[in-house]
Amino acid sequence: MKTETIEVQGTGFNLQDYEEARRTFSWSDVEKVFSWYETGKVNMAYEAIDRHAEGERKDKVALYYSDAQRDEQYTFQEMKAKSNQAANILHKLGIKKGDRVFIFMPRSPELYFSLLGAIKLGAIVGPLFEAFMEGAVRDRLENSEAVAVVTTPELLPRVPSKDLPALKHILLVGDNLDLEQLNKEHPTVQLHDYHKEMADASTAFDIVWVDKEDPLILHYTSGSTGKPKGVLHVHYAMLQHYQTGKWVLDLKEDDVYWCTADPGWVTGTSYGIFAPWLNGATNVIRGGRFSPEDWYYTIEKYKVTVWYSAPTAFRMLMGAGEAVAERYDLSSLRHILSVGEPLNPEVIRWGLQVYKLRIHDTWWMTETGGMLICNYPCMEMRPGSMGKPFPGIEADIIDDEGNPLPPYQMGNLAIKVGWPSMMRKIWKNEEKYNEYFRLKGWYISGDSAYKDEDGYFWFQGRVDDVIMTAGERVGPFEVESKLVEHPAVAEAGVIGKPDPVRGEIIKAFISLRAGYEPSEELKEEIRQFVKTGLAAHAAPREIEFKDKLPKTRSGKIMRRVLKAWELGLPTGDLSTMED
Ligand code: WTA
């Protein structure tokens, strides 16, 4: 079978020979990077910030932060001082090791100071995306029994403090606060003025050393059923963050790195905080909303060299057109990566044309804490494939009994248990946790995929999304990928719609690019496009145009919401949906 390949671009990568690394790599060697290997004193925040602040990188910029109002930068030394101050505030409130401290606010330097400060204290941090409404906030704070929340006056009304008996403190990041008045509305907790407290706090702090298996961070994520689950990671995850940062992000001393994800989602912490700073890289954080102009401006302004984003963003940039990209100087870019959903080959081709660079797909999940299957700068790429397992990771395609399947057979994407950033718990839900490990020795991802004869993995869909139509198995991603190749299609979501004759038929929800109007002719043209470009059985029998498709913040089109719309059923938990 002839596969489209894209050659390696350039030389001098941190990882130079993938096959060699697979043979020789061991996680225990990575432990030696960290001082705790000898001292036994572990803390993620020490390795990410203080270590550099005490060494040659002390005056290097750790964080560039900007949004429409602010434009700031902080060296590693300054990051150490600020996070120490935040740790001192939390310490004064009586927060201790193991307590859950949630951070519910838009991106800002204060978010990063507080998060690192809480980690320095040995607390478990829980980042919450700013768009969560009251119900979503309640679910998470209730389940985790959080004792403190760091938030802003704007978001405070969404913290239902009276319903949360464990919650004792709210730290407010805002100007001119009337704490007395606000305390009347939140009589069961103590409110504190972050800026005032910071002004009085010492910049020195005795970091709390923990065990490498002590909990670090709790990320809530939604499954196909039930309430969001709290996925717990430990400090030891730093091995994975560090090493994937080195070999997949390919971070080097002079890099300026930008991960576009919000820390409310795992990409925004594992790769927006830990991986870059464990590697001592300069990290760019851009607040505010997405716009093609603003994002290109950010790359130009900071001379970003390594850029980690998501397929939705790349598709929107593609939708905005090449002319917008041409107005900015993007020549600093040397490495681009993607995560969160399938990266369409069409987008990769477009990236090659416009950025003159390959976009490297990476696969992982909230539960896996770090990258597992990736495209490496040193490796030939096959567009549409998420790449090969990271050295030290064993991945395979297995059937429902745990038997490995031969190449090209679709099955459960599974990982041999035991990588450093693997979740250690689902908070207060052992049963859910055990479901992932129901086949002995394997972590079952819930994704379906196949591998080719050269060991590249190809994503097919969530196990529950695969469509059976007239006896044919169709992965919705394949159809969606084809659909977005059509010039009129901006985004597409494909579901199986129950059908008395065929079992299911394929139905596509489509949003159009600017300049195109919905019409019956266009539907037919798109249908023919898939029929001729992919397969007759894969062509959507039904097409519905929508202004916008329901998506998670990490950019996944929520097929389950499309399906619920279609069937007139309740849409379930929408707390991870964008907007
Ligand atoms: C999907 C985001 C295709 C997959 C880090 C997985 C992907 C889920 C890819 C986890 C990829 C992630 N190609 N699908 N490269 N990366 N996914 O927990 O279905 O928000 O199970 O973690 O996203 O999403 P989560």
UniProtKB/TrEMBL annotation:
Signal peptide: none
Every AMP-binding enzyme C-terminal domain range: 478-556
Enzyme class: ligase
Keywords linked to the UniProt accession: Acetylation, ATP-binding, Ligase, Nucleotide-binding
The protein's Enzyme Commission number: 6.2.1.1
Pfam families, per the entry: AMP-binding (PF00501), AMP-binding_C (PF13193)
Any one GO MF annotation of this record: acetate-CoA ligase activity
Domain of life of the organism encoding this protein: Bacteria
Domain AMP-dependent synthetase/ligase residues, every copy: 51-425
PANTHER family referenced in this protein's UniProt entry, alphabetically: ACETYL-COENZYME A SYNTHETASE, ACETYL-COENZYME A SYNTHETASE 1
NCBIfam families with a match to the protein in the record: PRK04319.1 (NF003313)
Protein name: acetate--CoA ligase
Provenance organism: Caldalkalibacillus uzonensis
